Structures are given as structure tokens and as C-alpha cells.
Fold this sequence. Notes:
The structure holds 2 protein chains of 2 kinds. Chain A has a single domain (48-290), classed as MetI-like (MetI-like fold). Chain A is mainly alpha-helical. In chain A, strand 1 (37-39) and strand 2 (45-48) form a beta hairpin. Chain A contains 12 helices and 2 strands; from the N terminus they run αββααααααααααα. The model of chain A is unreliable at 293-298 (pLDDT under 50). Chain A is 72% helix and 2% strand. Chain B is an all-alpha fold. Chain B folds into 2 domains: 3-56, no CATH class; 66-275, MetI-like fold, CATH 1.10.3720.10. Chain B contains 12 helices and no strands. Chain B has helices at residues 3-33, 55-63, 66-97, 103-115, 118-131, 138-161, 167-174, 179-208, 211-216, 225-233, 241-269, 271-275. In chain B, 45% of the residues are buried. At the A-B interface, helix 1, helix 3, helix 4, helix 5 and helix 6 of A face helix 1, helix 3, helix 4, helix 5 and helix 6 of B.
Amino acid sequence: xxxxxxxxxxxxxxxxxxxxxxxIGYPVLDLAHTSLQEVSRFGQLRGFTGLDNFxxxxxxxxxxxxxxxxxxxxxxVVGGTLIISLPIAIILNDDFYGRGxxxxxxxxxxxxxxxxxxxxxxxALNGRAGLLNATLMDMGLLAEPIEWLAEAQLxxxxxxxxxxxxxxxxxxxxxxxxxxxxxQDSYEASMVDGATRWDQFxxxxxxxxxxxxxxxxxxxxxxxxxxxxxxxxxxxxxxxxGTDILVTYLYKLAFRFGQIGKASAISLxxxxxxxxxxxxxxxxxMRGEKDSAxxxxx
Amino acid sequence: xxxxxxxxxxxxxxxxxxxxVILFPFAVMFVTAVRPRDELFVYPPRWGxxxxxxxNFAEMWVKTNFGEALFNSLYVSVLSTALxxxxxxxxxxxxxxxxxxxxGAYRTFLLMTQMMSPIVLVLGLFRLMVALGMVNNLNSxxxxxxxxxxxxxxxxxxxxxxxxxxxxEEAAWIDGASHFTxxxxxxxxxxVPAMAVTAIFSFINGWNEFVLALTMIRSSDDFTLxxxxxxxxxxxxxxxxxxxMAGTVLATVPVAIVFSWxxxxxxxxxxxxxxx
Lengths: 298, 276
């Protein structure tokens, strides 16, 4: 086949490229422009103000509180997810009775939209009649119903646990893909050498799984950092901003309080952080491609 | 005890806490959806209830305007998927079959946009739709969903297209078929399964999307399902939880079944298309 086909391939990618550039590119430029303007409640630009909006953001204690909780939220959800998902994937990669059923159940949270999951949990955690209280009281673990979402610290902890729960399927899928590509003969060789399963895990599985663990970390960080529905539906960042993370705070500023200039500045800051994560991701992917397939590009 | 049985029991014992936590919300959903209204708030809270009230579903359908939200969700998910596929198929074909200037940059662009989340840009997107006069218009969702989904659909299609041998097309050219004919007669029929799977995932993405729908759609007649169900819960003094749960059952279970069935195909398209 000819290696260069004129402009035909360019014409084939162009329509999609234009739509993506327009829908994704325009908002970025608009946010950059708006963040440097004084903006009325109704979105009218009132003239250039330099970095005033950014200064206002950095002087806002709620911003710093949200930033801190975003860090906690991201690190704990991603960390918890990885620690749980790796053993789950190792189990699901092995053969046992009922493996098909186990896989379907573990993957279920992925099949439900986060909004619906959060709505169901909001009801399950209801302080008066929630069925979590019913279960714990039936088991004798609780004497009185607990208001799970009324106090920020407890609500945030519960939200983190649900965040972990819904991130497990995707992460397990990545790990299963990795495990299925591991060479079986190194395990057999190590068995001959008398290695225990723990030795095998530490010296064969973990090192070989490292690229997949890296990808899982970066992708999860991106997804979790950006995740609005769980916290928004369950507590809307309340009570008293106690569960606000950057995305919920940004959403309130933009669409509740009409602080468009400030919201644009936060959007832009978050865009920068996201871009950084994405560059790390792209670098990981490109490195993986170079290592794995020399003749891939043809 | 045979070793296989012992291993299975140990594995299930390890998995069981997670299995219980995963199934718990489903149990909550079903049990609440069929519960009589006056047994929602009882003290002490309990799982049991006196009778299965299947009427809850019919009642919910009428009272919450479920049919309209269902139609809106279908409209947005189907059209955004169609738009994304129409634009993605040629792009994915070009990626898998041709070499062209800027290909590397284009692949990087795709990876970048795949990671771009609507929430970070939501204010800019809203201002864009205001400028276009498309706020409160379902087509604003069609455009944005298609644009944000395209990186995923191109990536996924591309990874499948690369598995279709090009000899078949080349043989057709030798027999005198034009590129266009071979594309339509030889390539596309082979690519149908890949396109179907990709379309279903794109559909589910649109079906489940929340943030943009919450932002762009202001009037309750145009709500999609996630926003409609959210609006039954948020900022209400009295929430009709049995209706809300009946709604979530109808909105999620069919999609969940399809998703569980096709989930193994997802591995190829997503991150793993990248990690390999």
C-alpha cells in the first residue's frame, strides 16, 4: 500500500477534529478570557482586571478548604481502590467455581450511572429509615439510627468509601488485562525453585504489573479528581461546605452564586492540573507503545 | 476436600464482604421500589414490609413524568452516538490504514481529549451554548456528548479496524473495485460488530451523563433521566422515595444488563487500547 495517500486521510479526520476543537477548544479560550475580566452576575464582561479573579480565589479560605479535601478525596479513593483491586484481580484471574458470577457482580457498579448510585445510597443512608441503619441494628451493631450525612466528617468518609466502591470495577479490569499478559513460565520456573506464592507476588507479579499499576493510578486520579455526582447528589458539598471539593465548589460559584470571574479562574486552575495529569498519562502510554511493539505503526 | 473446591471457598470468602457491599444498594433499590408508601418511614427502620406494591411503578410513571424523561434520554443518547460514529468511522479508518502528516500529533490530541472532563469546562460550555442560543435545548447535549465521546469512539474503532486484514481490500482493488466500493462492500460489513459495540458504549455514556444535562437543561420538560431523578431528591422537603427508587430501577437495570454482557469488549477500547 502507498505510504502517503495525499490529503484523503486528513479529510477523513477533519470533521471530527473540527467538532472536538470547537466544543472543547472554545470553552478553554473563553474561560481564559473570562478569568481576566470583571464579570457581572449575569455573565456580562465589565472590562479587563488582570489577575484580580485569581487573587480573589487565593484569598478565599473555602477554596483552600476545597483544595485540601480534593487532595484527601483523590489520594484516599485512588489508594483504597488500588489496594482492593489488585487482590480482587488476582483472584478473578485464577480459575474457581463461580468465577463468571463473581466477575459480573464485581463489575456491576460500573454499569450504573454515578448519579443513580449516589441517589440510592442517599436513601440507604437516611438517618431515620435508611436500610443501612436497619441492617446494622438487626445485626446488633447499632442501638440507635445514625445520621450518616448530617455531619461533614462522617459524610465525607462515607462518600470516599462509595468513591472506592465505584472505582473498583474499572481498576480491576485494567489489572485483569495486565495479569492475562504475564508469562506463565516464570511462575512455573519459580515453583521449581521453591518460591512461595508471596515470593511470586513480590518478585514476579508486582514488577511485571508496574506499567498497569501506573496507568491505573493516573487514570483513576484523573477520573476521581473530576468526579462530581457522588458528592453533589449525596450532600451538595454540605453541611456548611464541609464536603466541598474543587468541582462542587466550582459548580456552586458558577451556577448558584453567579461569581463567574472567580469560577473561571478556578476552572482554569483545574484545567492546568488536569493537563499535567494528562501529559503524564500520554507519556506513559507512548512509552508503553515504544516498549511493546516496534512494528506497530505501519 | 478437593483442592479446587477448597480454593473456591477461600476465594468466595475473601470476595464476600465486597460482594455484599456491591449488592446492598441493589437490594435497597428493589425493596424500596415495591414498598407501600406508609411503610417508608417506620421506627425502628426495617427491611421487611407487608406487601409488594407493584402499582408504585405505574404511579411513579405518571406522577414524575417518567415517559418524557425517558424519551429525552433516548433522544440525546441515540443522536449523540450517531453523530459521534459518523465522524469517528472515517477518522478511525484513516488512523488504522493510512500514514499521514501529523498522525502522531493527532493521536496525542485524541488521548488528551479523552481525558478532558466536561466538569472542568462546564462554565465555558454553558457560555458557549448561551452564545449559540442553545441553552435548554437537548441538541446542546447531543453536540457536547458527541464531542467528548469521540476520542473514545475513534480509539476503540481504530483498535478493531486494525485487526481486519487489509489483504481483503487490496484483493478487491486488484479485481478492479474502487476504494469506495471496497470500503462499502468489504470493509464495513466486517466492521459492523466493532461499530455496534462502540455505539452501545457511547449510548451508555450519554444515558448516564449528569453534569452537562444538569447545567444545560433548565425546564423540567426537557430533563434527561439522571437529572429528572435527581430533581425528585434535591431540595425537596418531602421525597417520595418509593417513586425515586422505582425510577432508578427502570432507568438503570436494562442498561446494567447490556453493560454487564458487553463489558469484556470495553477492555480493548479504553485505556487498554493504549496500554495493550
